[in-house]
């Protein structure tokens, strides 16, 4: 038996922690479901035998999904940030989240169907907005502020002043 990570992210779900964990495991590399544990007795959000917790990893980050019930909503104060290398990878993760019940936001942010926020951020963008040339960094930043999903070509054009 593998020992649980000493520190991991706990995400609250309303009965669908296992579905979310399996979606993440199927979508992202270095992601998997390690254990699904059922409740040993009745609890406010469920009954004995219901899935209570799910131990899973998302891109190497240990997590536990807790089926805690309704009333707790996710918000942008927590998000997964995925660094992508090219437009195809950016598009793949964006579409995987948005097309499976999620929703688009702005500046590379989106939410999955469980309300968890994701930042799909090309490494080109991270480098561009920290460019040593303040004018180039500002152009790239201003371009990003007008985007929903990040368009790498648009960021590169802005960086060059085009």
Descriptors:
four-stranded mixed beta sheet, 2,3-Dihydroxybiphenyl 1,2-Dioxygenase, domain 1, elongated, alpha/beta, 162 residues, 2 domains, 8 strands
What would you say this structure looks like, in words?
The structure is a single chain. The protein is an alpha/beta fold. It folds into two domains: 59 residues, 2,3-Dihydroxybiphenyl 1,2-Dioxygenase, domain 1; 82 residues, Roll (2,3-Dihydroxybiphenyl 1,2-Dioxygenase, domain 1), CATH 3.10.180. The chain contains five helices and eight strands; from the N terminus they run E-H-E-E-E-E-H-E-E-E-H-H-H. The strands form two sheets. A four-stranded mixed β-sheet has the order 1-4-3-2, covered by helices on one side. Strand 7 and strand 8 form a beta hairpin. Helix 4 packs antiparallel against helix 5. The longest helix has 12 residues. The N and C termini lie far apart (56 Å). The model has no long low-confidence stretch (mean pLDDT 96).
């Amino acid at each position: 038996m593998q020992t649980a990570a000493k520190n991991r992210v706990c995400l609250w779900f309303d009965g669908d922690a296992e579905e979310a964990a399996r979606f993440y495991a199927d979508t992202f590399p270095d992601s998997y479901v390690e254990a699904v544990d059922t409740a040993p007795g009745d609890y406010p959000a469920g009954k004995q035998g219901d899935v209570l917790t799910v131990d899973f990893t998302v891109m190497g980050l240990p997590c536990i999904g807790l089926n805690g019930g309704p009333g707790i909503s996710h918000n942008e104060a927590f998000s997964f940030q995925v660094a992508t290398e090219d437009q195809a990878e950016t598009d793949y993760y964006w579409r995987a989240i948005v097309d499976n019940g999620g929703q688009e936001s702005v500046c590379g942010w989106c939410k999955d169907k469980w309300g968890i926020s994701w930042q799909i951020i090309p490494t080109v963008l991270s480098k561009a907005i920290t460019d040593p040339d303040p004018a180039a960094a500002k152009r790239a930043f201003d371009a990003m502020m007008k985007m929903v999903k990040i368009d790498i070509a648009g960021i590169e054009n802005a960086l060059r002043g085009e």
